[in-house]
Amino acid sequence: MSSHTLHVLSHQHTLTDLKRFWQDGDCLLLTGDAVYLSSENLPQPCFALIDDVLARGLDQHWPTHITRISYSQWVAFSVDFARSVSWS
Known about the structure:
Strands 4-3-2-1-5 form a 5-stranded parallel β-sheet.
């Protein structure tokens, strides 16, 4: 288990707040309307829920540096982190 934080971002307007608390080794997951931030300069590593990407029609132009994951992958992924913070 990682001692770092999984940041779950679901709204675009909370990115600035998240960046103030970001530490090396943390990870970002985009959900909901936050997937619209895919063209922004985001902390890495960064992932996105594929259902939210598809629902917003962003799949064809999705950047390769942001991996799309399923809900079940998100659950399995969450177990690897000591902390999870939801930014909504």
